[in-house]
UniProtKB/TrEMBL annotation:
Name the record gives this protein: Beta-glucosidase
Phylogenetic classification of the source organism: Eukaryota, Viridiplantae, Streptophyta, Embryophyta, Tracheophyta
Organism: Citrus clementina (Clementine)
PROSITE patterns per record: GLYCOSYL_HYDROL_F1_2 (PS00653)
Keyword terms, alphabetized: Hydrolase
Domain of life where this protein originates: Eukaryota
């Protein structure tokens, strides 16, 4: 592993004001990113179903300034303008997420909402026309509210099959043009902040010693199901890539004491290893 001091020394001659694309490898991808609930708005248009974030932001006391995603930056109606801005800034890629409840309003996969399919088709086509590659996230925290209320959402292992149905529909509908897929964005954030601290939707904290671990485990299973489905059914024909986005927060021991080293190792096991490696002894012992 390269030490921070070595990395900084390598680039110490580069002035921040003079950094340009030429300082990066030719295949480096410059992009911008968003998520559906944060930008789309139009929460009751296009036959979209409610998500847990709709419910959370409209619950008294959850958001101090009472802001919500009902309108947001109105990307639903202004996506062409937004894509023009991305193109003018010279970016190569745009990562956005699909709202599960725009594709399946109840989350169950019983009936495809074609207005949702059309909306995302339009975004993908507009990006490609501008020479911008779409990087598509299937799940960026906005679980269909019906799945949460009817079966417990990520607390219920049954959600894995519903996520696979949803992923299958997206691969079939958009995979001829989308070559980079992300199954779930930062699953640890959902598990901890949604089911431990309660500061994210669905705002649960009553069973913080068990629920975050169940949620994390079920999201890993959902990722594995979607990944396996793509490799098995779509990879040869569509030729895309698929993976998981993990927010990697590094941890180092405060001293050479065995207690500090063990604490740092546990932190890394749960923060990174749980999602990127096989289940460690630390993780298994708490599950």
């Amino acid at each position: 592993m390269v030490k921070k001091e070595e990395l900084l020394k390598e680039y110490e001659q580069v002035e921040p004001t003079n950094v340009s694309k030429t300082h990066f490898p030719p295949n480096f991808v410059f992009g911008v990113a968003t998520s559906a609930y944060q930008i789309e708005g139009a929460c009751e248009e296009g036959n979209r179903g409610a998500s847990i974030w709709d419910d959370f932001t409209h619950t008294e006391g959850k958001i101090i300034d009472k802001s919500n995603g009902d309108v947001a930056v109105d990307h639903y109606h202004r996506y062409k303008e937004d894509i023009d801005l991305i193109a003018k800034l010279g970016f190569d890629a745009y990562r956005f997420s699909i709202s599960w409840s725009r594709i399946f309003p109840d989350g169950l996969g019983t009936k495809i909402n074609m207005e949702g399919i059309t909306f995302y088709n339009n975004i993908i086509d507009a990006l490609l026309q501008k020479g911008i590659q779409p990087y598509v996230t299937l799940y960026h925290w906005d679980l269909p509210l019906h799945l949460h209320e009817s079966m417990g959402g990520w607390l219920n292992k049954e959600i894995v099959k519903y996520f696979e149905i949803y992923a299958d529909t997206c691969f079939a509908s958009f995979g001829d043009r989308v070559k980079n897929w992300i199954t779930i964005n930062e699953p640890l954030q959902t598990a901890v902040n949604g089911y431990c601290t309660g500061i994210f939707a669905p705002g649960r904290h009553q069973h913080s010693s068990t629920e975050p671990y169940l949620v994390a485990h079920h999201q890993i299973l959902a990722h594995a199901a979607a990944f396996s489905l793509y490799q098995r059914k779509y990879k040869d024909k569509q030729g895309g890539n698929i993976g998981l986005v993990v927010d990697c927060e590094w941890a180092e021991a405060n001293s050479d004491k065995i207690e500090d080293k063990s604490a740092a190792a546990r932190r890394l096991d749960f923060q990174i290893g749980w999602y990127c490696l096989k289940y460690s002894v630390n993780v298994i012992s708490l599950n």
